[in-house]
Amino acid sequence: MYLKQQKALSDRLKAVLSDLYQIQLDAVVIEQPPEIAFGEFATPLAFELARKLRKAPKKIAEEIVAAIGAVPGFAGFEVAGAGYINARIERGAMAKDVAATGEVTLGQTGIHSLVEHTSINPNKAAHVGHLRNAILGDTFVRLLRAAGQKVDVQNYIDNTGVQVADIVVGLTQLEKLSLGEVEALMTRLAAEGTRIDYYCWDLYARVSQWYEADEAEKATRRKIRLDTLHLIEHGSNETAEIADRISTAVLRRHLETMLRLDIEYDLLPRESEILHLHFWDLAFEQLKQKGVLYFETEGKNKGCWVMRRPGVVIANVPAEETRSESPVRPAPDEDAKVIVRSNGTVTYVGKDIAYHLWKFGLLGRDFAYNRFFSYPDHECWISAETGEEEHPHFGGAQAIYNVIDSRQADPQANVIEALRGMGYTEQAARYTHFSYEMVALTPRCAMDLGYTVSEEDQARPYIEVSGRKGFGVKADDLIDKLIAATLAEVVERHPELGAAEQQQTAAAIAVGALRYFMLKYTRNTVIAFDFKDALSFEGETGPYLQYAVVRTRSIFRKAETTPAAALAALSGIDVTPYLAGDEDVSIWQVWLRAAKTSLLLEQCIATAEPAYLAKHAFQLAQEFSSFYKKNHILTEADPARKALLLATAAVAQRELIRALGWLGIDAPEVM
Q1: Strand order across the 305-307 sheet
Q2: C-alpha–C-alpha distance, residues 282 and 147, integer Å
Q3: 59-82: pLDDT as tens digits
Q4: Is domain 2-89 in CATH 3.30.1360.70, yes or no?
Q5: What is the pLDDT of residues 618-631, one digit of tens each?
Q6: Burial class (CB in 10 A: 0-12, 13-18, 19+), 33
Q7: Closest to 241 measured CA to CA, from 272, 270, 278, 267
Q8: DSSP secondary structure string for all residues of 329-359
Q9: Is the whole model's pTM more than 0.85, yes or no?
């Protein structure tokens, strides 16, 4: 609704500028005044036109306001300060419109987007840092779907990489196990109730230390690692079979962990199939044919296939093709990105280019597919070399979002540049690196987890997680600890609930706390996770938002009505007199905030920043709390005013539940 009013104002201002000054603008800047007393919208348009029109901004603003006339949904316009134009909404009419608004959508029906997130190496248990990736990606999927897009969710599995090789080295070299013995180990661990991803967590730390433990053996052990990696990449051998068994078992555990946070996937594309189905061969031919790659014959990259950089003249191109009047050949481009090394191996970027050509439907080859994991309402598929005949269609997306941490900015930029160089400019423009910073632990959190923290580290704002050192918090341990802390509070507050309901409520609060903590920070912010901060019922936390919804439910139970009935009742009441005075500001602020849901959905998608929605939900909860304290809803004597107050609680509940749902957070019945 707020978007509708904003567009109406923008369209009218454009028309006025065309009539008054014969000026055509594509867009008009519309802001929100710092205080509600100044109105709901403001524009600095007069300041922007002052130089062009050679008039004082205030004079221009006066001319524009005089020419605006009546605009549906607006009560009036005025000049403020040295030339701002403020606009006031017809509050009563807008409140009724907001009350009647059901589903929110941006109407992006037909757009097919692909979001890749989580993408944990299947070599050990997921940790707290992985949760930020998964929660960000899952939330963005929910936002795109709310906007009307068709979204495929992919979780890329690097099952042939060095991290998996390290686990295989640990099993074969440290534990001295064969394939049969590895399978027996997995059976025994399952019988004992020991999780394979937890076992690998400890093994990964041990093998990392083993590589460095003996200086005399370091080179030999590194050679074992490299040989193991090559065997896994090649496939069809016992080492590769061990890698497949372990990585598949760990992957299944990752999906179970993420399901606890209500995170689901559609497809698990694996590195092994990208290699064995020869995706790179097809991509390599395209890259060469379109001049994106060239073979370097000089300098440090001699013998490599490297990627041509825009505007850089290439040394090994014939002189007549350099378009240079100088007969002197330029030096090799030492900063060119190597895609194929001189020994013939393909870099990470090269394989990623091939994978993204498939994502956009530009490769000319597809995976085979098998069912892998069942959710309540759909199947998650996994890539294969041979698979089931009937399967969903994957790939061929119009827009791609890759949730990958900020350290991968350069490789991601190289893939985009390769697409652009191949002539796929539209696809390159629709490729978004959804980057984010790391998650660390506060010293207090590390000590809560049982780690010994030095005095020096205790003085730091955060301590970085390190999987190789075995320092960090496993995702499931974190979730368990949050639920346990919450359960104690729920049991104390609600002894009347059954044990199952207490557990369910505690899980909803714990997951809500975790998801909101990960989402309230902008993506370029390092997060220092802390149990006490995340679980607080006060301040900017998930439980605070959930409690606001619980409070609204209490209101309707006591009033013996429903939110739907309260919103419907508003249509027959003139509420304008109850929204006009200064004493009614707390009521109007709830309605105005509730009207902005579509705007926030649009902003979050345009900027790939879910934190804006988290802030919006928190501000709505704050404004509802202020409204609740200032207005005695159940004892209000004026029937019309009481109806408005109940509708205000209802619209706050509706929009909070909607926003929380997009954030992946449930609103429990009690807290």
Answers
A1: 293-295, 305-307, 337-340
A2: 35
A3: 999 999 999 999 999 999 999 999
A4: yes
A5: 999 999 999 999 99
A6: middle
A7: 272
A8: PPPP-TTPEEEE-TTSPBPHHHHHHHHHHHH
A9: yes
